[in-house]
Design a protein that fits this description.
The chain contains 9 helices and 7 strands, in the order βαβαβαβαβαβααβαα. It has 295 residues and is an alpha/beta fold. The chain starts with 7 loop residues before the first strand and ends with a helix.
Length: 295
């Protein structure tokens, strides 16, 4: 597997969870990581800040830059990208990880919540990619990664949380279009999504509490999958909609996924948006989706 030593990553929503895990995996190679998030001061319900994340990146042998940034604000986006390029001399990888979620029926979804999800998920990812594009063009192997699902247009992925699904699928539609649009610049644009629920604050606070956390995988599986994406040759690997374990198995040769489980004695909980025909690697067993909806 290739190394990201000396590469510069800009990661949104990187103060905790999946974003931080992706940064830590790159840091172990000796990468530079710009940590973008809104949390600069400790939050009573959420672990980590941009400053604690920067400390973890440095401890993992990377170089860190902590930037408080609300990606709904284009001026803050432009400033964050400029600070990253000034600090590290360029930009190689843009990770659009920041996301807002509300799994509510339309009648129960307030307009401000719809605005938040569209502002962060779809609009924020588009504006961040736009701001990064001129700098990515100068990279030897530039990548844009969206943490968003495959485009499986089934009613089951929309009903009951239609606003969130549209906002999240907006990121995936951006992959579909930008992979072709940015091909001439040699910039790869791909999507990555987990087969199972991931042990993050969103899972604990919004979906299923500690029970669902125990049935999840750790963010490390997405970090390893993202690392594998970034070591692919950009002009040859773009427009892909990847499921973490399948990609790690088929391209990375991983055959044992037990180390990613929070509690191996419990069944793995499936995540939303994974098409039924995308079967897991050999030996991986996932509980039915009805189990998740019953929690």
């Amino acid at each position: 597997m290739g190394s990201l030593k000396g590469k510069t990553l800009l990661i949104t929503g990187a103060s905790r969870g999946i974003g931080l895990a992706i940064g830590l995996r790159a840091a172990r190679d000796g990468a530079n990581v710009a940590i973008l998030a809104k949390t600069a001061e400790p939050h009573p319900k959420l672990e980590g800040t941009i400053h604690t994340a920067a400390g973890e990146i440095e401890a993992a042998s990377g170089k860190a830059l902590a930037i408080q940034c609300d990606i709904r604000d284009e001026a803050q986006i432009e400033a964050a990208v400029a600070k990253t390029v000034e600090a590290f001399g360029g930009l190689d990888i843009c990770v659009n990880n920041a996301s807002a979620i509300s799994l509510t029926k339309l009648a129960d979804t307030e307009p401000k919540r719809i605005d938040l999800m569209f502002g962060i998920n779809t609009r924020g990812a588009l504006l961040m990619t736009k701001a990064c594009q001129p700098h990515l063009k100068a990279s030897a192997n530039p990548h844009v990664l969206m943490l968003s699902p495959p485009l499986d247009m089934k009613p089951q992925w929309f009903s009951g949380h239609v606003a969130y699904s549209i906002a999240k699928y907006g990121m995936s539609l951006a992959v579909l279009g930008l992979a072709d649009e940015l091909k001439r610049d040699g910039i790869a644009v791909n999507a990555l999504w987990p087969r199972t629920t991931i042990a993050t604050a969103a899972i604990r606070n919004i979906l299923g509490g500690d029970k669902l956390i125990a049935m999840s995988r750790t963010p490390d599986i997405l970090a390893d999958a993202a690392h594998l994406v970034f070591t692919q040759k950009a002009p040859e690997f773009t427009g892909q909609f990847l499921i973490d374990d399948t990609f790690l198995h088929e391209v990375g040769g991983v055959t044992d996924f037990e180390s990613y489980r929070v509690d191996a004695s419990l069944p793995l909980a499936p995540d939303f948006f994974v098409p039924e025909d995308l079967r897991p690697p050999p030996g991986v067993k996932i509980a039915p989706l009805s189990m998740l909806k019953a929690l």
